[in-house]
Amino acid sequence: MRNAWLALQRTQIVSPISGYVSRRSVQPGAQIGTTTPLMAVVPATNLWIDANFKETQLAHMRIGQPATVISDIYGDDVKYTGKVVGLDMGTGSAFSLLPAQNATGNWIKVVQRLPVRIELDEKQLAEHPLRIGLSTLVEVNTTDRDGEMLASQVRSSPVYESNAREIALDPVNKLIDEIIQANAG
């Protein structure tokens, strides 16, 4: 009975985070497999911008420096405030599936871009929500150069965590006990 009850509970799919549904590829009543992507859930909080700065712009950039972000969706009317929370450890081309290779004798230097993560103010995001993939203009104030270029602290807890897959067995255990008691005497 416990296995049947557990199987019934697992027919309900619960999102591990709160957010907005995007790219839904399933309809109610559809049969799905265990590896079938159903939809993307985009969180409305803890958003950040990965700004791709040229390597020549990074000499004075440090973690903790203030940033100003303007999104094309709102234009100059809305200026977000944020701060640098990290500089990536590699350029986009270094991690691409097929990295660009310079042929022998090709001495053309290509300036690379490095992702810099900018954390945004939650209150401003609540007033003027952003969407994933929008174009932005990011300016970082690099006058204060006391911060670090690399994060020295490891995050102690994940940004997102969920107990959506945990199912309490108390209700079924109580039901089993009631059935046993009713049939015991």
From TrEMBL:
Compartment annotation: Cell inner membrane
Pfam families: Beta-barrel_AAEA
Domain p-hydroxybenzoic acid efflux pump subunit AaeA-like beta-barrel residue range list: 48-139
Listed GO biological process terms: bile acid and bile salt transport; response to antibiotic; xenobiotic detoxification by transmembrane export across the plasma membrane
One annotated Gene Ontology cellular component of this protein: plasma membrane
InterPro entries in alphabetical order: AaeA-lik-b-barrel, MFP
Keywords on record: Cell inner membrane, Cell membrane, Membrane, Transmembrane, Transmembrane helix, Transport
Membrane-topology annotation of the record: Single-pass membrane protein
Similarity-based family: Belongs to the membrane fusion protein (MFP) (TC 8.A.1) family.
Protein's recorded name: Multidrug resistance protein A
The species this protein was found in: Klebsiella pneumoniae IS43
